[in-house]
Amino acid sequence: MNTKESAGARPLTGESFELVLDAAQLGAGWARTRLYETLAGAVAGYLRTQGVREPDDVTSEVFLAVFARLDGFSGTEAQFRSWAFTIAHHKVIDDRRQRSRRPDPEPLDAREPSAGATATAEDEALANLGSERARALLGGLTPDQRDVITLRVLADLSLEQVAVTLGKPTGAVKALQRRGLDALRRELQREGISR
Amino acid sequence: MSTPDDHPHDMGIHSALDDAAAENLLAGRPVCDDELMPVAALLSTVRFSAYEAPPAPSLALAAVLAGEPVGATAVEPVGATAVDPAPRTQPRPGALSRLLRNVAAAGLVAKIAMGAGVAAASMTGAAAAGVLPDSVQDAVAGAVRAMTPFEFPDHTGERPLPDGGGPLDAPGEPATEHTPPPDDVPTGDPATWSPDGFPGDAAGDAPSTTVGGPPPATAPGATPTTSVPPPAAGGDGPPAPPAVQPDRAPGPPEPAPASPEPAPTTPAPTTSAPATAPAPFEPPTTAPVPVQPQSPEIPEAPTIPSAPSETGRG
């Protein structure tokens, strides 16, 4: 089980997580806030990477659902993280269904270089892989590949946790992540981005 | 940009990705293959987005984060798949008792920080002030004395010396002088509370655990009752104070007395005979006669028969 914590988040150590979880289950506002601050950044980034409309609002919806069901949760911090991202993933699925019914007027990779941009400026833009460009590249993957890679990278979930979240066998998840990474590698090589 | 999934060797680009390399990329570990360096940079950028500050919560979530109960505004996952995201485990019973045990193990500062000391202080503060009912006061005093370095007054208002010696004050001094200063009031040991972990439960069996309950036996200015080990009186206090409190040796925490015992009516012994741990059921003994330490019996030196005399005898 991948227990690596994102450096930017405020990881809750094993002992303090149990304290915080118990307090949050008892309704302590400070404990709920702590849980929110620990995961909300990653959840919002995951939703944003998945192209969810209004990712900040959906992040709040995710945590409202988390706290509504918090009494029934029992597990470690890694399991809590996996559970929260499972809820977030369901929000992504809901958003995709809504967008399939009502197509999003804005394409996922909206940041296309302007027609007047020179090759040098384009190369510069491509060379500076900002978050938006990274999301655009991930947008070129299949939904399943993007789900696996973002859950592994943003949510810091293990292979097995991703398999449970997506409801797929571990072998299928492994194949999806390998293909997704390979696709990214090919795309980056095709665009000539190298170091 | 469409990406075929089943043709990794498309366009003649050799796939340099195996499972190990994929795990390294996804975990953020360094990769040696130059072809994978751009992918590592891309994933680092994606991972960095998790470091962003959490977005501002919605109004409903802000209320929940402030401690409000999750109300109707809580949005359940709509159109969720058949897999219920919430791990359907049993509710965590005893979350409060577990929290309190963890707080107790975390130390005094953590207790105060966690707020659990507030509930504890309300009871232990009352015990420190000696305003609990007699039976409860004595039980709490004995437990605190046995498990902490602090001393609480018993129901008579006396607080024994740290070394278990006699009373702190001579007869005639008001018991209020024994009120410990605020910084000496411990937060108590939640382990002494009821299994439910809630101080109210532990105090639920007692008539009162708050200030304003039955007053201590000694009123301000009155003659303090220097007493023997506190009996489990029914709350009326000892009828007659003995003279001196006997020495006490620290012992195991005493359980709350189950039945009241008649209060002692005779003065307590003043000798150095050490008493056992506070035993409310022990009736006072009469003044023992000082016992002289007896030295071990020394056998008499054997008499050495004198050597037979060799003087002039045949």
Please tell me about this protein's structure.
- The complex is a heterodimer of chains A (195) and B (314).
- Residues 1-9 and 111-117 of chain A have low confidence and may be disordered.
- Chain A has 195 residues and is an all-alpha fold.
- Chain A contains 9 helices and no strands.
- The radius of gyration of chain A is 18 Å and the shape is globular.
- Chain A has helices at 14-25, 29-49, 55-68, 77-101, 119-127, 131-139, 143-153, 159-166, 170-190.
- Helices cover 67% and strands 0% of the residues of chain A.
- Chain B is mostly helical and 314 residues long.
- Chain B has 8 helices and no strands.
- The radius of gyration of chain B is 37 Å and the shape is elongated.
- The N and C termini of chain B lie far apart (143 Å).
Low-pLDDT stretches of chain A? 1-9, 111-117
Rg of chain B, nearest Å:
37 Å
Mean pLDDT of chain A: 82
Biggest β-sheet strands, sense, barrel of chain A:
none
Overall shape of chain A: globular
Number of discrete helical segments of chain B: 8
